[in-house]
Amino acid sequence: GEPLPTAVTGGLTGLGPALMAPLTAALTGSGLPVRLTSALGDPLDGARLLALDRATPHTALVVRVRRTAANPPLPAPATPPASV
Length: 84
Known about the structure:
The chain is 26% helix and 7% strand. It is built from 2 helices and 2 strands, in the order E-H-E-H.
């Protein structure tokens, strides 16, 4: 079949070749039918798609967490030291 378009995303990709060179080599040498491509959007775009369409192709791989209790109280902010 056709190679699966695959994008590597996330903040760590900003490390450049230190991360991307070995990761790219591992993906292309894996024997899996992948074709590396640029991301079609940013992480918020992906989150929006998941939130709006539960029938995405990878739904079985997504873990959706729902809060079952009320939000816990927030801790009181620390008092800043008095200025001298």
